[in-house]
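Final report, Chapter 2: Outcomes

The project's central promise was a pipeline that accepts a single protein chain and returns its three-dimensional structure in a standardized token representation, suitable for archiving and comparison. That pipeline is now operational. To close this chapter, we reproduce one record exactly as it appears in the project archive, with the input sequence first and the structure output second.
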Amino acid sequence: MGMNVHFNNPELQAKIEQWSNETGRPAGELVENVMAGYFDEIAQVRKTLDSRYDEMKSGKVKPIPGDIAYARLMESIEARRSKA
């Protein structure tokens, strides 16, 4: 059983059709695979956030102020860039 895929966004519709043509797979199958992966990823993120919340609530992990977290992120990005 096939599935017709139609989006109101012409750019997205064109990308899906191109992807379908390039892979030789039906658009519906491609969209189903993307959605399944998306939901798996969301479930993993939710699990991670729930465990972090539990760790913070129990006092096992202390929150970091946003400016410090941002500075650490930028340091990490710069370190990766300098290795490239």
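Archive annotation: The chain has three helices and no strands.
This record, like all others produced under the grant, will remain available to the consortium after the project formally closes.
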